[in-house]
Design brief:
This protein is of the alpha+beta class and 241 residues long. The protein is built from 6 helices and 9 strands; from the N terminus they run E-E-E-H-H-H-E-E-E-H-E-H-E-E-H. The chain is globular, with a radius of gyration of 17 Å. The two termini are 31 Å apart.
């Protein structure tokens, strides 16, 4: 794997501490203050397995599952990672680790030393006349409710709009998933309707509410909408970590 591109994109009006590349390539690291989206690596295997196991009670109700008649079976971490990276290189998805840099801004850490706390994935990326993607996410229960997921989703959206030049970002959420519904509410996603029995989740086909935003609806970027004062998340701010 090549080294991720972590260069700053010179986009006027973004707060100091937002790190985005000037053009898209995978692997890539992006940052909004202490919130870091970076590629998962083979060195994350142990931490990933521990995180998934310790959060099973917290995530199982929302985890995607394979229907009984599916021919594939869940893959071990390294096989899954190879498949995710192949899809990312083909620009079908952006399978980011959600990590936090506990030293930012005083002693920012390299991406490889940030703490893994979850995942943000942009999937089903379409080019051509659609230019769209679908975002999914989960976070360690210990870090939930601290504003990290909204910041990470805003960062992923701004990358997709400003760097990949996508037009539409969609998020699909089960009606019962109150924490995820708060994320799209905080970010100002518009609700478009209900998809009955849309995805196989926790052992059955589940209804999902559909939310979306187009690039021209957030001309200043979603990070600027979320942080109008320009104060990005850090350990030192009240309410963060």
């Amino acid at each position: 794997m090549t080294e991720p591109d972590t260069s700053n994109a010179p986009v006027a009006g973004w707060p100091s501490g937002v790190v985005l590349p000037a053009k898209h390539s995978w692997p890539v690291v992006v940052r909004a203050g202490a919130v870091v989206l970076r590629p998962l690596t083979k060195h994350d295997a142990s931490a990933w397995d521990q995180l998934r196991a310790s959060n099973l009670r917290w995530t199982y109700e929302w985890d995607a599952t394979l229907p009984p008649d599916a021919s594939q079976r869940p893959a071990p971490y390294r096989a899954w990672l190879r498949r995710m990276n192949a899809q990312a290189r083909a620009e079908y998805s952006l399978p980011w680790a959600l990590a936090v840099d506990e030293g930012w801004p005083d002693q920012p850490a390299p991406a490889s030393r940030t703490r893994l706390i979850g995942q943000v994935t942009v999937a089903n990326i379409l080019k051509g006349s659609a230019r769209s993607g679908v975002i999914g996410y989960w976070i360690d229960e210990h870090y939930a409710g601290r504003g990290l997921v909204p910041a990470a989703v805003a960062l992923a959206c701004d990358y997709c709009w400003q760097v990949m030049r996508l037009h539409r970002i969609e998020i699909c959420i089960r009606p019962e998933n109150a924490p995820s519904l708060r994320v799209v509410e905080k970010l100002g996603f518009r609700e478009e309707g209900l998809r009955p029995r849309f995805l196989h989740i926790n052992g059955d086909w589940r209804d999902h509410r559909v939310f979306a935003l187009n690039r021209d609806e957030v001309r200043g970027g979603l990070l600027n909408r979320l942080f109008p004062d320009g104060q990005l998340p850090s350990i030192g701010r009240v309410g963060w970590l």
